[in-house]
Amino acid sequence: MAYVNTLPIRIHNSSKIPIAVDNEGFFYRHHPVTFSLVSVTRNKEKSYSATGRVFITDKRLIFVADKPSEDGFETFSLILKDVSTSTLASVNPIASRYTFAVTLSLNSSSNNNAIDTLKVTVTFDPTDVKAKKTMADYYSMIMQSSLAANQKKSEVATLESVTALNADGIGDPPSYRRETHANEISFGYNRDNNHHSSVGAAVSRDDDSSRPPPPPYSSLV
User: Fold this and answer.
1) Domains and CATH numbers, the chain
2) Is 143:86 a contact under the CB 8 Å cutoff?
3) Where is composition skewed (Pro residues) in this entry (predicted)?
4) What are the residues facing 44 on neighbouring strands?
5) pTM, whole model, 2 decimals?
6) Is 13 left (phi over 0), alpha (psi -120 to 50) or beta?
């Protein structure tokens, strides 16, 4: 999910800092940047832009404006595990040295107000080329890990679904019972010698010494 103007923040040394979620680690932050956002929700496009501080954690991409823009834009947060695709967006070749831009597709949500796609553009000061590259490297590393985890989770879910489907189509095995002694003996019965052959003796697991010979094989058919 992506959220606009819902991020909990606190003030630290006169700066706005996002409040971390459980077990969240902060990898990168930089100030100042111009953060531009184009969101599409149910085919409706909306744009936001402000100057402030950008953060990358192991769970989220975050922006906090120094002050709200004229249209009220102040904070943005994106849960990285909810991203289904992330593609570098085209930027002017000269500006690309200090501009980070990506187009994102988000996993489907039952929330009708959820953002479907995003284009995020982070513009650094032209002298902050190294800071832009560092952000791109951190984002790429964390996003690749997140997408790989999502792919593995999807494969496991698919495998479990197929396994359950196959299991539903398999009936219980037949119930085998040992009460077939007469048939076992009959396969070893020697009509010519009127006694059990060695095959019959091997198949039969009971002591047949006190048992009368079985009837001819044909009578059992």
Assistant:
1) 2-127+135-143 (2.30.29.30), 181-216 (no CATH)
2) yes
3) 211-221
4) 41
5) 0.69
6) left
